[in-house]
Amino acid sequence: MQLPIPNPQNLIYIILIFSAFFFSPSVSHPRISEAGRFCGHGKHNSSSNFIPNFVNVMNFISNNVNAKRWGEYIIASPAPVVYALAQCYDDLSPTECSACFAVSRTKLPLCLPSTSARIYLDGCFLGYDDHEFSHQAVDDEYKNVKCGSSRIDASKFRTKEFARKVEGVIRNVTELAVSHGGFGVFGKRGGVESVYALAQCWKTINASGCRECLEEAGASLVGCGPGVEGRAMFAGCFLRYSNENFYGIEDGSNDSVRQTVATILIAMASSLLALFGVFMAYKRFYKRTEVYNNPIGVSISIHKNNLNFKYEMLEKATDFFDASRKLGQGGAGSVFKGVLPDEGSSSVLYSVRLISLICYTLVHLLICSIKRRDYH
């Protein structure tokens, strides 16, 4: 029975399979929970074209959202005017964006026949009105703050520390959003409690309007402390904080960078240890296979030594080819047993099978089984 010798290339597959335990993709939740729905006070009468116009606007908006994750559209004729704006938050994937918009589109009609309405989900925004409102950063009618009911269980000192931490995170995420096209996430881990925040301005709002909206929203949201989460839903932006990480991408905090680097280093170290372990296991298995295929225990390295012996050494080792040292008769002559000067003993068996298996001269004595008189 021949034991299979493992192919070293198979080690690559073992390492790749092992590494898969350390690197796996993560997918954020589409965040379809409703943060707030606000219906206008005005009402359309049932005889108007409002409902058909509303349906048509939503169809156009849906196409835009699926194509670029936000959109706006207006129908002015026939009356009444219906304008709509939709926006997914930038950390959602296209698939998650479509799912979030689909939910908001099914919930917004609950406000009908109101002349205006806004709905904020945790992952997207959708609104309609009887006039264009996409460039309104701040509107007194839409300054809504929703604080979480849960509060941190801590002393008065820790509560103040948490409130200060929330304020700092909101300030940082506001700066990130203003300087990065209207979107930013920021997290601060450790301490009293971890705090994570997300800021999103609508694509139709310029940088100054985005700052104005987020600063007012942030000032209102700070009042939610010591609540563990809060949401500000304003005319031109959405701002949220929580003590749990809820967004789908890495944030801009130094803590996040350090944590990412640490994770990578740990994964690399673990992979190297795994590689070393696989190598040692392969080496031990190879040695066992070698012993099995070489049962007489002769080292293969002997083949590399190119053993050659002088005739005088062979005479001495075999006591001048004494008959008592003769082992038998081989195909090329007599075979003798000898003791070499280094006290090592070598039993030479002239066998084609042995030679083909070990492939070295094993004191084959040059098959020095040549009769003594041939050397005279």
From TrEMBL:
<dbReference type="InterPro" id="IPR038408">
    <property type="entry name" value="GNK2_sf"/>
</dbReference>
<keyword id="KW-0472">Membrane</keyword>
<feature type="domain" description="Gnk2-homologous">
    <location>
        <begin position="142"/>
        <end position="246"/>
    </location>
</feature>
<keyword id="KW-0812">Transmembrane</keyword>
<dbReference type="InterPro" id="IPR002902">
    <property type="entry name" value="GNK2"/>
</dbReference>
<keyword id="KW-0965">Cell junction</keyword>
<feature type="transmembrane region" description="Helical">
    <location>
        <begin position="12"/>
        <end position="28"/>
    </location>
</feature>
<dbReference type="InterPro" id="IPR051378">
    <property type="entry name" value="Cell2Cell_Antifungal"/>
</dbReference>
<dbReference type="InterPro" id="IPR011009">
    <property type="entry name" value="Kinase-like_dom_sf"/>
</dbReference>
<feature type="transmembrane region" description="Helical">
    <location>
        <begin position="350"/>
        <end position="370"/>
    </location>
</feature>
<keyword id="KW-0732">Signal</keyword>
<keyword id="KW-1133">Transmembrane helix</keyword>
<protein>
    <recommendedName>
        <fullName>Gnk2-homologous domain-containing protein</fullName>
    </recommendedName>
</protein>
<keyword id="KW-0677">Repeat</keyword>
<feature type="domain" description="Gnk2-homologous">
    <location>
        <begin position="32"/>
        <end position="133"/>
    </location>
</feature>
<dbReference type="GO" id="GO:0005886">
    <property type="term" value="C:plasma membrane"/>
</dbReference>
<comment type="similarity">
    <text>Belongs to the cysteine-rich repeat secretory protein family. Plasmodesmata-located proteins (PDLD) subfamily.</text>
</comment>
<feature type="transmembrane region" description="Helical">
    <location>
        <begin position="261"/>
        <end position="282"/>
    </location>
</feature>
<keyword id="KW-1015">Disulfide bond</keyword>
<dbReference type="GO" id="GO:0009506">
    <property type="term" value="C:plasmodesma"/>
</dbReference>
<keyword id="KW-0945">Host-virus interaction</keyword>
<dbReference type="Pfam" id="PF01657">
    <property type="entry name" value="Stress-antifung"/>
</dbReference>
